[in-house]
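pls ignore typos typing on phone
NAP + seq
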Amino acid sequence: MLDLNGKSILITGGTGSLGKALTKTIFEKWPNVKRLVIYSRDEQKQYVMDQEYPHSKFPAIRFFVGDIRDKERLTRALNDIEYVIHAAAMKHVHIAEYNPDECVKTNIGGAMNVIDACLATNVKSVVALSTDKACAPINLYGATKLASDKLFVAANNIKGNNPIKFSVVRYGNVMGSNGSVIPFFIKKKKEGKGIIPITEPSMTRFNIPIQGGVDMVLYALEHAWGGEIFIPKIPSYRILELAEAIAPECEHKVVGIRPGEKIHEEMITSSDSSHTYDLGTYYTILPQRPVWKLDDYITHFNAKKVPDGFSYNSGENNQWETPETLREKIKEHVDPNFSVK
Ligand SMILES: NC(=O)c1ccc[n+]([C@@H]2O[C@H](COP(=O)([O-])OP(=O)(O)OC[C@H]3O[C@@H](n4cnc5c(N)ncnc54)[C@H](OP(=O)(O)O)[C@@H]3O)[C@@H](O)[C@H]2O)c1
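k done
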């Protein structure tokens, strides 16, 4: 059972949506955590978060201004840290397309720095955040995150006798995250023009609340043997049903798919199926050359190999949201005041 009381943790990108949700959960579950370091660049976001976690009530929290591109600073911040969650990234598809070198420096160079700094210190377990866009990527953001995933998986091969474990958690669009479709539809409804723009009527998406991402990170911290890419089993929704859930009174205007967008989100391709296992709540894509015995892993987790050719994408899911379940979840996870009226 994971117990972070008395432990030291660092979250890169700790002021972001995953970082903040994780911080809240850590303090709720383990109030006696020894040190929780928030590592990110913008002092203003840290200032705002500092107001939420005053030192008098949360003496364990530390705010480190730093860039993941700066290995020296990162190594210093990792002094005496045992657990690392690597969430810092550039994540907007069109911004990455326009500024590819910046995205490469942060998402790939930053990942390399996190790995090197963790290997040089006494970190025990590192969980890096991935995205559905890293699966068969068609845009630069996805390609950089795929490179990052590969770096974290392969880091287990260069650790020697160091007991550190590197693993990856991959999920799709988080419900209500900045720039995502749910807040966009709610905004369009509130504008009162009676029109909801639909990129492509057959589009589907996976649906995960931010707490689902937090739970996966904590699962990986506790259970990873090193080199896994963990993927949640979550429901999908059809974009037309989301529009129905939020704004049934509005007409639809089809505006066409945006550059770098897929009709269905993918998390596991059929090419991954040869080394993908079903763990019950999660799938795990295992490294093709693990540093541990595959038979031991299968026995320990009662892991079931997925059928050859299996792929996991939002268009072929066996769990589906309905307009009613979507409304309930929007109220619970995005906007408590949401009403379809
Ligand atoms: N949100 C989603 O829908 C979603 C879905 C799937 C996967 N993910 C992945 O989950 C992770 C977390 O996403 P999120 O939604 O929490 O992102 P977010 O809200 O945009 O937060 C990003 C965090 O990273 C920090 N950051 C960015 N560049 C940095 C750098 N060079 N050095 C240090 N810190 C840096 C940001 O703070 P500063 O700007 O102040 O540095 C911020 O704290 C990302 O790896 C993302 O790819 C997100």
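Residues 100-120 form the longest helix (21 residues). The two ends are 45 Å apart (CA to CA). more later
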